[in-house]
Amino acid sequence: MSPDSSERPPARRPLIAFAWLWVGAPLAYGLYELVRKATQLFTG
Asked: How high is the mean pLDDT in each 10-residue block of the chain (44 residues)?
């Protein structure tokens, strides 16, 4: 083992959370709009 192995790797949880929000927020909005417009289409 090298002497540097005692150092912790950088925390990536904030980056992962940001990436999920970056993709998930527009996806959730798009699905919401899809359901809303499909409801209008089929119910009149």
From this structure: 66 94 97 97 88
- Give the pTM: 0.65
- How far is the CA of 13 from the CAs of 2, 27, 29, 37, in angstroms? 25, 21, 24, 35
Q: Is 30 exposed, middle or buried (0-12, 13-18, 19+ CB in 10 A)?
A: exposed
DSSP annotation of 12: -
H/E stretch holding 15 reads helix 13-43
The amino acid at 12: R
What are all long-range contacts of 1-7, with beta carbons under 8 Å and residues at least 24 apart? Answer: none
